[in-house]
Queue: 2 jobs
Job 1
Amino acid sequence: MRFFYLILVLYTGPVESLQDIGWFWHASDFHYDFSYWSDQLSCNNEVTSPGIYGDYWCDSPWLLIKDSIESMKEIRPDVDFLLWTGDNVAHISDDYLSVNISMGILQNITDELQRNFPDVPTYATLGNHDYFPNNQFPAENSEIYDRVADMWTNWINDATEITRFRNGAYYSVKSKHGLRILGLNTNIYYTSDKVTANMTDPAGQFEWLDQQLTAAKNNNEKVLITAHIPPGMHTPDTILWYYPHFNDKFIEIINKHVDNDVITAMYYGHDHSDGFKIFYKKDGTTAFPIFVAPSVTPWRFKAGTQTGPPHNPGVRLISYDRATGQPINILMYYINLPDSNANNRTDWKLEYNFTQAYSVDDVTAPSLHKLRLRMEEDKSLIDMYYKFKDVSVSNPPSCNDDCKTSILCGFWNHKPDDLNTCTEKGKTTDDPTDYAVHLHANLAIVVCLLLFVQHLLL
Ligand SMILES: *[C@@H]1O[C@H](CO)[C@@H](O)[C@H](O)[C@H]1NC(C)=O
Ligand SMILES: *[C@@H]1O[C@H](CO)[C@@H](O)[C@H](O)[C@H]1NC(C)=O
Ligand SMILES: *[C@@H]1O[C@H](CO)[C@@H](O)[C@H](O)[C@H]1NC(C)=O
Ligand SMILES: *[C@@H]1O[C@H](CO)[C@@H](O)[C@H](O)[C@H]1NC(C)=O
Ligand SMILES: *[C@@H]1O[C@H](CO)[C@@H](O)[C@H](O)[C@H]1NC(C)=O
Ligand SMILES: [Zn+2]
Ligand SMILES: [Zn+2]
């Protein structure tokens, strides 16, 4: 009997076994092309034999969207919630779109999610392509904000927050397990939004975010932030999606609260590539991670002689600690698009298990910080990161030394000047007096790139 008690004590010993683990899905950038089987309006090259699940040159046919949502349900139906970070309308000229077409697409994807996850709330946010005209999000109520508020009423499930959504397409909800979810409309900060360009706080969202973070601290809540367009620098292409004054303001608000340990993580889309970043506290210790999910659409960018890489469709499953809100792991699922078309069926497979692939304890900021330092020493880890960026497409582009420096610097530098200073240090051993000259030359390059990239309109 005494022996039995001893075993019992040993068995219930490890603290991990008491951790209450929850799961949620994150899907982004479906970009449905309703003309895939007719005019192929989104396709960047002529596609003579379109595959039933899609083509690297085009946005998604409906079957791909339906199949990805059904696969999420098959892999794990019992999740606490879903994150859906926008861009549901294809890369199609406004000439072929309208408010009703965009709203019809949003309604159909909303219905598909509700059909597959009837008892699970989806915390959804709009992407720049979900507005009509494209990108032109206003700072106050509009027909689109109203219609989407009606569509997502059951998910937001709070009269005050639905009213807030009608005003600026952002909201705050508390999940079943007590995590505060802030769904932001970051499209109003995008350099392609001409309506908000000269404003200081469109839709009052900055002031509200500041208040929400203060309230969360006072109420002892943990916060998850989700939105379409991420702040900071997209690397290795060195793209700042926000107008610089909005990026500065966003970071200023985050920094004001960064030492309070309120934000657990941020989840975005828009990049159409898989990546993460780390936010640090004032004393240089880690604060929280930023995760960017790749797209479901395989669509390949092309403008003039410039082409983007192909990528495979992917969705991700995230585990987190329900008590602390801290993220634990990311399981990335994907299909190889040509194989799926050739086999006439999809086989959604685990692309990677984050903690296993990178040998880290979890995906919290301290673990990602250690990984970042290991990447500085072991560049093969960046090659793996780069392969995942395009969702393990066959024959991916390679990442040279400048590309690797840019990625390493992008993990922790969220402003153009800071990123530039970091990449300069990373690749030059020049006389320091030359430094300022290099810096200015590079700043000019960054500005040109930014102007060019505005036209990519992811
Ligand atoms: C757009 O949709 C609304 C609501 O469904 C409908 O009342 C209206 O007639 C539609 N407009 C056009 C131009 O089709
Ligand atoms: C949405 O689904 C309905 C019903 O299946 C269909 O008639 C309609 O064309 C779809 N809308 C779009 C924009 O594809
Ligand atoms: C914003 O300011 C610029 C420069 O002053 C001006 O050209 C532009 O028309 C303004 N935009 C709006 C929407 O007011
Ligand atoms: C592919 O699958 C669909 C539906 O399962 C079926 O209708 C079609 O005939 C199949 N095509 C080929 C080439 O096997
Ligand atoms: C992911 O990897 C961890 C080890 O880091 C392991 O404990 C876990 O079972 C793996 N999960 C899946 C679904 O492969
Ligand atoms: Zn997109
Ligand atoms: Zn986008």
Job 2
Amino acid sequence: MKLPYQIRNIDEVYGVYAIEDLPLGSKVMKLYGKYVKEPSKYTIQIGERHLDSAYGSRVNHSCSANTMLMIAINTLDGEEGLVPWYSRINGTLTSMVIGNPYPVLVATTSISIEDEITFNYNHSESILASPFKCSCCGKWIRGRDYKREQQKSMSIYEHRGYE
Ligand SMILES: [Zn+2]
């Protein structure tokens, strides 16, 4: 099967680029690899685990990304469906309903040939192993739970202040 994307190294920066037009809703990149416990600069968080995927690790962040991380499943009708990664599917009931789930980046807009393929790291990652300053907006990208974790540690600190 021909992949609809290509990994390129432009000015020492890896990125993934579309080599054909990809319509809205299409499965752009199936993510394969090894699941590890600890996140790294190259892993993608899927639920409680972190996927070390050779191609997936080359997809750069964008705050206005053109794909989103989803989980593809087989429904009872034998059709393939997509659910958000955060739907917390688990347990035996679910496994009777669905089968062969796999993570996939799905186009959230129509992607043109030569466009860079991106997704928003703040959607998938709880806390980034390697925070960085976003090249599009200049904001720090630290993961979706960063603020909450920071507030939690600050409230512990404040509480101690009153002891
Ligand atoms: Zn940004």
